[in-house]
Specification:
The protein has 9 helices and 39 strands. With 454 residues, it is an alpha/beta fold.
């Protein structure tokens, strides 16, 4: 049978103490529920159904880039009720996989093993379970004569049942035809007056269907996230997994505990990541790069052999064998060529920098197009803003811009031109020319002595 996933994500998550819906809080750069959606999409060909409720419009907007269907649970009346409202999107002769939007740590291979267990045992219903050191808050798994008979929620459990440490994860595989038939048999006769999906275990057993529980080894995969402490714990677990996978694939991470790589980041082999590095979003780092220490790169492409030290790169591209930093800031929209040097305290914004150009220190390049083999001296400023509009500056190939030069945009310096130190450039500099725009020095003898007498 084909797999059809239902992801329960309607709760408010009051313990997060946040205006944001719980399932939209992120770990490794991705909302909690998106981790689960990606998992379900990898497992089955059918679009998952996401059950939303609290701030449903916000959740749907945040997930608009994903191919999912929705069911809206306006009143949160329990897990059984959440599944019931999604029944019109479930067909006969499917296997329904029920997941939760706040359990993002479960691995694909664990779900695949669960499905294999379900199929090989010819089951009608199976629950994924785990043994935890502290079962407080979880529904307990009840077995009688080694047969899985029911799940008892903690608030409804007696003292002996509360001592059990095999607990319900909330993840189910269920025969869709039987689920459709018996979903209305769930009632809310319990202390919470909610419709518990867990009641299906007892119902299926009473009907003589084949029911069993699948206990996994690593309970941390099934940890739910209800508050900021658990959010940080999940982040740490996922970060460890990401870094471990990268190291196995040939990336050197000097200090994995102090390196933060988000889920969608790609890093090539023989790259070295130094401590304090943060790689975010859709960042792609090529082979044989050196990144860090204390560097943040977001949604950027870093090509082979580049070195980025103690700097930030945002929404930009850095070419092969280019060196950036320390203390450089590459702002969005920048395209840095090959074998370029961007030195200390250089800021580049929305600019193109040609191959073999050197911008060694203390320079601002904003809204500029800089050619190949250009040298920008210390203290050069692209004066790009006139108080109303941003204007561009163009520096053509093989030009030399001396120290403390102001380039008042829009302006162009043609190929092979020189601009003398201290010049303010307000009009085009022709090719092969030297531009000097500063007052001739004059010395006033005795000026200091006279000033002191006054």
């Amino acid at each position: 049978m084909e797999i059809k996933s239902i992801i329960l994500a309607a709760g408010q998550g009051t313990r997060m103490k946040s205006e944001k819906p719980k399932v939209l809080h992120k770990i490794a750069g991705i909302p909690l529920v998106e981790h689960v959606i990606r998992l379900s999409s990898a497992i089955g060909k059918q679009k998952p159904v996401v059950v939303i409720g609290h701030q449903s419009i916000v959740v749907e907007s945040e997930l608009s880039h994903l191919d999912v269907d929705y069911a809206v649970q306006n009143e949160q009346l329990g897990t059984g009720h959440a599944v019931k409202i999604s029944m019109d999107q479930i067909q006969e002769n499917q296997t329904v996989l029920i997941l939760y939007g706040d359990t993002p740590l479960i691995k694909n291979e664990t779900i695949e093993s669960f499905i294999e267990f379900y199929n090989e045992s010819d089951l009608d219903l199976s629950v994924m379970t785990m043994e935890v050191p502290n079962p407080k808050g979880y529904g307990r798994i009840i077995r009688e004569n080694d047969k899985f008979t029911k799940i008892v929620e903690e608030k409804d459990a007696n003292d002996s049942e509360r001592k059990l440490n095999e607990v319900n994860s909330g993840i189910y595989l269920i025969n869709s035809s039987l689920l459709i038939k018996h979903i209305d048999d769930i009632n809310n006769d319990n202390k919470q007056n909610e419709f518990y999906l867990t009641d299906l275990v007892e119902i299926f057993n009473q009907e003589g269907y084949n029911v069993d529980a699948y206990c996994i080894e690593d309970y941390t995969e099934l940890l739910g996230i209800n508050n900021r402490v658990q959010l940080a714990q999940a982040e740490k677990i996922l970060r460890h997994r990401i870094n471990e996978k990268l190291m196995i694939e040939g990336v050197t991470i000097i200090d994995p505990d102090n390196t933060y790589v988000e889920s969608d980041v790609i890093i090539g082999s023989d790259t070295i990541i130094y401590p304090g590095t943060i790689l975010k979003g859709k960042t792609v780092v090529g082979n044989k790069c050196e990144i860090g220490p204390r560097t943040m790169i977001e949604n950027s492409i870093i090509e082979q052999g580049a070195v980025i030290k103690e700097s930030q790169v945002m929404d930009s591209k850095v070419g092969q064998s280019t060196k950036v930093g320390p203390y450089a800031y590459i702002r969005p929209g920048s395209n840095i060529g090959n074998e370029v040097k961007i030195g200390d305290f250089v800021e580049v914004k929305n600019s193109n920098i040609g191959d073999n150009t050197k911008i060694s220190h203390l320079t601002y390049v904003g809204d500029g197009d800089v050619g190949k083999n250009v040298n920008l001296g210390c203290g050069v400023v692209f004066v790009n803003y006139d108080g109303v509009n941003k204007n561009r500056t163009t520096i053509h190939d093989n030009s030399f811009i001396g120290c403390n030069v102001n380039l008042i945009a829009p302006v162009s310096v043609k190929a092979n031109a020189y601009v003398a130190a201290g010049t303010t450039v307000t009009k085009e500099v022709p090719a092969e020319s030297l531009a000097i725009g500063r007052e001739k020095q004059r010395n006033i003898e005795g000026w200091v002595t006279r000033k002191r007498k006054k």
